[in-house]
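FAQ

Q: What does a record look like?
A: Structure on top, sequence underneath. For example:
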């Protein structure tokens, strides 16, 4: 009789307890997987919060960049700022032309405004002009410069300068 009870207990163990044990083990591994996923998502959310706080704390820098790279050409502001810089430096602006640069906005996110300047004046005024241009709120990029000197009564005269530069704006 004890053999029958033992066999019945052994059968019930395999029929009822062992499947529950397997389900419990599967649930434990699923719980570990979900806890790992939850910790990854929590870390991602914390990183997102940190990035959001950094972006909020850098709004002043973003505003400065928007000043350097305005949304449109603003040719009137470019012309007036260059005129003001030449007046401050003591140079004479003899010619200024602007043209739209090649459209590379799909690759770079900004467009180019080509500016050609012809100036005349002393060397010291030219260095002051470059300094003022560098301090300008607008971003200018000089890519070509030529200089020639006029001769007056056998002595050096004024510098005749030609500058080609770019100003940038967003698309």
């Amino acid at each position: 009789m004890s053999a029958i009870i033992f066999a019945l207990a052994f059968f019930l163990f395999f029929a009822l307890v062992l499947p529950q044990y397997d389900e419990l083990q599967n649930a434990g591994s699923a719980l570990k997987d979900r806890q790992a996923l939850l910790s990854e998502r929590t870390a991602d959310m914390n990183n997102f919060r940190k990035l959001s706080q950094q972006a909020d704390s850098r709004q002043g820098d973003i505003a400065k960049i928007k000043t350097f790279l305005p949304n449109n050409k603003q040719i009137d502001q470019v012309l007036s700022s260059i005129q003001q810089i030449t007046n401050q430096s003591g140079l004479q602006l003899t010619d200024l032309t602007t043209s739209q640069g090649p459209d590379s906005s799909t690759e770079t996110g900004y467009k180019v405004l080509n500016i050609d300047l012809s100036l005349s004046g002393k060397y010291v005024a030219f260095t002051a002009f470059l300094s003022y241009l560098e301090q300008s709120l607008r971003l200018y990029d000089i890519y070509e410069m030529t200089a020639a000197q006029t001769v007056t009564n056998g002595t050096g005269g004024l510098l005749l300068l030609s500058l080609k530069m770019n100003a940038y704006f967003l698309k």
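Q: Is there anything notable about this one?
A: The helical segments are 2-57, 59-68, 75-89, 105-108, 123-135.
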